[in-house]
Write a structure and sequence with these properties.
Layout (H helix, E strand, L loop, with lengths): L5 H13 L4 H13 L1 H19 L8 H17 L2 H29 L16 E6 L5 E7 L6 E5 L10 E7 L6 E6 L5 E3 L3 H6 L5 E7 L13 E6 L1 E2 L1
Helix pairs in contact: 1-3, 2-3, 4-5
Length: about 240
């Protein structure tokens, strides 16, 4: 029996709604959702909150190589059908694929903006995701990176309102070492943070991250000076 802690359950639910999991993982998730009510609740929560983001994003056309793969996948089925039924069935199938792909691509690119991926880019290493929660396990940030060379993206969700004298700062928590600042976060919009080589090497599954409350310009000491508001552990994407 698979045991999921709150943080892992939330991260898996977010990935499932974003559509970033492999087909094998998605099929397994679909089975788990049927039996794990807490996981199903988190999936519904992410669907509700990410739908608002997808509604504000313009449709993104699927790249030519993806259409070629779809057409190749349709050929065997098309050859087995008669000319009339093949035309009707094919149109409906392609329409469904178009709708699903446009929505999924628009949402993923809204949260993880990048050039339209090439087929070889889909196997890029270093993709990570984590959910930062408060002490009551309420989700506050979705943080992700598409690959080792991409910026960190931090999407705020349901945050407390800050005053003009406050700011959020993101920290990496390497094992056995002092916290390292990743950068200041916008509490209204997604923040993209480019990492130096030292930080890139430390962003690995299992490493913790945290968000502290700091003065507007960030910590004046190079270490967290305000309360730690949100924490989480990095998971492989």
């Amino acid at each position: 029996m698979i045991r999921l802690n709150k943080e892992l359950r939330d991260a898996l639910a977010a990935e499932y709604v974003l559509g970033t999991q492999t087909l094998r993982v998605r099929l397994r998730m679909a089975r788990l959702i049927e039996t794990d009510e807490q996981l199903a609740d988190r999936v519904r929560w992410w669907e509700t909150h990410l739908d608002a983001i997808s509604d504000s994003v313009s449709p993104v056309p699927a790249p030519p190589w993806l259409w070629n793969r779809i057409e190749n996948a349709l050929k065997p089925a098309q050859e087995e059908e008669s000319a009339d039924s093949r035309g009707w069935w094919g149109n409906v199938f392609v329409w469904r694929w178009t709708t699903a792909l446009a929505g999924a691509l628009a949402l993923v690119l809204a949260l993880l903006p990048a050039p339209v991926p090439r087929p070889d880019a889909l196997t890029a290493q270093g993709g990570v995701v984590l959910v930062l929660t408060d002490e009551d396990s309420r989700t506050a940030w979705l943080v992700s990176r598409r690959s080792a060379n991409d910026p960190i993206k931090a999407q705020p969700l349901n945050l407390p309102v800050l005053t003009e004298e406050q700011a959020y700062e993101l920290w990496l928590l390497p094992p056995g070492a002092a916290p390292l600042s990743v950068g200041l976060l916008d509490d209204d919009e997604r923040t993209d943070l480019t990492l130096d080589e030292q930080l890139k090497a430390l962003v690995e599954p299992g490493v913790g991250m945290a968000v502290s409350l700091e003065p507007p310009g960030g910590s004046p000491t190079g270490a967290p000076t305000g309360p730690i508001m949100f924490t989480g552990s990095i998971l492989e994407l």
